[in-house]
Amino acid sequence: MTEIKKNILIVDDDPDSLALMTMHVERFGFNAITADSQKAGEAILEKQKPDLAILDLMMEKEDSGFILAYRLKQKYPDVPVIIATAVTKETGMVFGINYEEERKWIKADLYLEKNIRPDQLQREINRLLKL
Amino acid sequence: MIPLKVLAVDDEFGIRKGISRILNNFNVDFPFLEEAFNYEIIEVETGESALEILNSEKIDIVLLDNQLPGIHGTEVLQQINERGYDCAVMMITSYASLELAVEATNKGAFNFVPKPFTPQELRDAIESITKHLYLKRMTRKMNEEGRETRFQFLSVLSHELKSPINAVEGYLRIMQDKQLGENIDDYQTMLGRSLERLKGMRGLIFDLLDFTRIESGKKKRNLQKIDIIKIAKTSLESIEPAALQKNTEFICNLPEELEMTGDSGEFEIIFNNLLSNAVKYNVNNGKVFFVISNNSGKIRISVKDTGIGMSADETAALFKDFVRIKNEKTKNITGSGLGLSIMKKIVEMYGGTIHVLSEPEKGTEFIVDFP
Questions:
Q1: Strand partners, B298
Q2: In a shared domain, residues B207 and B244
Q3: What is the rounded distance in angstroms from the CA atom of residue B28 to the CA atom of residue B351?
Q4: Residue B91 lies in a domain
Q5: How far apart are CA A11 and CA A36, in angstroms?
Q6: What is the ipTM of this complex?
């Protein structure tokens, strides 16, 4: 019996990050849909509803990931969103939870550091997809 | 005198009057400040009326009893935090239980004074809360001024430095786990990409060093008579390999020699930036027009390409630190995003200016003028 694979949308403007994330996600048994910019991500969302989305934060704009997350949640409120970023706590800058203003409209289910271990990533994806 | 407004919230008349009496003729001064603080007391009996006052005027310090007839002090405290009033709260209560103290400080109260208190205890507490308030406001003010640019710079820098590390680390992990099997040849793409990312990072670090040296004014400048044409020609040679790959044609109109007082290293940076951008953002088989002219001492350098060009918005953002125009056409072009900021800073050290003329799909012209 073949199971239909879940679709995971990955949006990242760093080609290596995108390639790595895609490799991991496919190895976990999901189908990866990729886009290399906020704009390309929006175009995909127009046509398709993914089962989960992993979005890079800084792309064309510094907060591209947030904007994309916002649009995605508007359209598909039930799709879990992971924001992945290379900018982390150690720099004293935690995006998304710094300002009340941002907390109001940013609706990510999870923030991840880019260098997350693949097994952790898999665990988080499975948890969000309730697998 | 710098007046601070103190809101005394207590249902006991005696306590309110006591606070007013103690603080009315009280001043706090700090050695680092020329002016002293004094206090203007507003008295209210309930938490509800406290919130009303807070809503209508700017209060600096709130002295808050917890056991109030209506809503409790801790609820007022919570409201203060939620609404983001810029004031410091001190709890005063006869029910000085540890639990309440912890709850109040968790909710953002600055400190806690049990009643009954002596005049000196209240004055000490007010002195420390004043210092806290002053420092908090000063810090915020300084942060607001510097934050915008600093934050932008640091967050983007950290992003630019960490992205390649993450990529290389990711590839290495896959190799370590031998996810593609035992054959090293299957990892060639990953190895190539890793090396490419490290190269980019090295470039960024060099640019960053130039940038910070210029920024901090610590760059040693060796100003002397230099022939900028000689430097321009060296720069042309160094760009040749890249130009060959894209089959870029250079059309140069340079004087035999042109003497200026300057630092040769700085002019190298200027020419390298202008010429490498003209190649990088050009189309294949494109042209670069490179002109240096001397109009009675006014020197102009113009580099014009037949490349992808930029929109007006993109042109406007061009000289900001770390700004790289990211779009479909530029996604395979690497750069630190610092080159043009560095160049602009250098040109400005000579009292010069940079202008950009650009049109999408047509090309871009950079014009550097020296007075």
A1: B295
A2: no
A3: 49
A4: yes
A5: 6
A6: 0.77
CA distance B229 to B253: 11
3 state SS of B351: coil
CATH code where residue B169 lies: 1.10.287
Which residues, in sequence order, are CB contacts of B345 under 8 Å at separation 6+? B211, B214, B215
B76: domain range? 2-117
In tens, the pLDDT along B255-282 reads 998 998 988 888 988 998 899 889 988 8
Q: Structurally, how many domains does chain B consist of?
A: 3
User: Is residue B129 in a domain?
Assistant: no
3-state SS, residue B283: coil
pLDDT at residue B366 is higher than 80: yes
Range of A41-55, B240-254, B335-349 with top mean pLDDT: A41-55
Chain B hits for A58, Cβ within 8 Å: 156, 159
Q: How far is A76 from chain B (nearest CA, A)?
A: 27
* Segment A123-128 mean pLDDT: 93
- pTM over the 0.80 mark: no
CB contact under 8 Å between A91 and B327, yes or no, is no
Position with higher pLDDT, B105 vs B224: B224
Alpha carbons A25 and A42: distance in angstroms, whole number: 20
**Nearest-Cα residue of chain B relative to residue A92:** B155
Whether residues B162 and A86 touch (CB distance < 8 A) is answered with yes
Is B88 within a domain? yes
Cα angle B368-B269-B148, degrees, rounded to a multiple of 5: 80
Taking contacts as CB-CB distances below 8 angstroms, the residues of chain B near A94 are none
Residue at B122 is within a domain: no
Q: Which of B65-69, B220-224, B295-299 has the lowest mean pLDDT?
A: B220-224
Whether B174 and B232 map to the same domain: the answer is no
Q: Is B151 on the interface with A (CB under 8 A)?
A: yes
CATH classification for the domain delimited by A7-128, as one of 3.40.50.720, 1.10.10.60, 3.60.70.12, 3.40.50.2300: 3.40.50.2300
Paired tokens of B138 = 């000063």
Q: For the domain that residue B321 is a member of, what is the CATH number?
A: 3.30.565.10
Res A72: pLDDT: 92
Judge: B155–A91 Cβ closer than 8 Å, yes or no.
Answer: yes
Chain B hits for A114, Cβ within 8 Å: 162-163, 166
* Nearest-by-CA chain A residue for B158: A87
Q: Which of A58, A60, A115 sits opposite B159 (nearest CB)?
A: A58
The beta-carbon neighbor of B158 closest among A17, A23, A91 is A91
Q: Is B179 on the interface with A (CB under 8 A)?
A: yes
Statement to judge: residues B252 and B299 lie in one domain: yes
